[in-house]
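Field reference: sequence -> structure
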Amino acid sequence: MHPFDIVAIAVYLLLMLGLGIAFGRNQSRREFFVAGGTMGWLPVGLSVMATLFSSNSFVFYPSAAFGNSLRIGASLVAFALMTPVVIWVFVPVYARLKVETAYEYLELRFHVSVRTLASGLFVLLRIGWMASATYAASVVVSSVMGVSQTAVIVALGVVSVGYTMLGGLRAVMWTDVIQFFVFAVTIMITLGLILSLTESGPSEIIRTYFDGREGLIVDFSPSMVLPYGTWVILIGVFLEAVSAFGVDQVAVQRFISARSERTAQWGAALNLAAMWIVIPGLLMIGIGLYSYFNQHPTELGTGTMTEILADDPKVADRAMPEFVRLHFPPGLAGLFLAALMAAIMSSIDSGVHSVTTAIVVDFRDRHFPKLRPKDERSELRWIRLMVLAIGVIAITLACFVGPLGNVFDIGKKLTAAFGGPLLAIFVLALFSRRATSLAVLISVLISTVLTLYLMYTQNWFSVWFWPIGFGMSLVLGFFASFLQPAKPTQYTYFQIMRTRKGTP
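Structure field:
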């Protein structure tokens, strides 16, 4: 590490803490949880993108493209299909019902038990996601810096939890905005450096990438084990995205913080635009790295690039950190590490904050209201202690999540079993007047257990478990609802849209 790199990293971390201190003044519960409901479309959109894009994504998109799976680019189509659903279905429902968490809606539609189950699934999903996302990027940071993964995880976790405790959602969202621009600029600089060091033009880079390799862009083979198959990306990533952006408290909390329903919808549209900038950039990095190491294969192993990948497919995960370590000039390596740290911290801060919100609102306030302090100052102290506790749990898990699988599979294995059934609850609630509380509870519990069982007994590509978990919950929940009489409701999607006006 050059001194310039250390300075770049130190300045970045101090800036994040400084924002937490600046926004920590005059805090209230509403300010801490939803930034007073005053956020504009820019911080809403970029914060959603920076948070749910995560450090996993920063690592696995270049890695997948470098290997043989440019097919992951089909996820852009899935995100484009997801966005209208979020804009016209989920955002209006939350805005018009004026809920604090997404799961409050489920109590209105069903029963408090369904709200509790859904919020519990979210808490498990998000803690697992935080751990896997933190671990994934810490692999790269530790290899470039030459320090242990545990030290990286703990250090970044302490900073993230620190500014989250101090500044609440406003600090989290504005740090996410800064973090988005940090890794967007880093992507452009990395692409420029790869092009300058690769001894060929863009057309030659592309020719080298596709030479002798098939099925790199699309592969519609109906295989359950094919990594990044086009069918599973289109179906599985679409469901994962609707769950993440539509019913996950991380995204919902940002939409709720917007000053109006229209502002939240513009924020959701900006999130899609930001994805269409960042994801192609990361995929092009993977293509460029393949061309570069094809010309300099000895920097990764012995033999040709094709032979190296055949002998060790995981070499794709090492390509980007090796390039940074060997070729980034002083200062720029620090910027690259700051970008990775930004991805890690945006995962931790938002996850910790949203999990705390769910625990306080859906569990403490709903089930143990006597525990809520009477004055605002004591309430803030209670909330900040909860942020600290959740942060410690997430950071501890991140230190031990490695044996579960590779960079991509870790996140999917820890979230698919919970995210699919969670989405099914909301779909049944919004679009089936026949759905009942007991049927939803039973179907979700059975589907979660079965998905976990299949996950650890079948060698299927991990993204398939999203449609499996979602589909089982949806079908079981719908047909089980016919076993008991339906109750009248005023909270299906069309009823809400018809009876409650939105805010411009």
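Note: Residues 24 and 143 are 34 Å apart (CA to CA).
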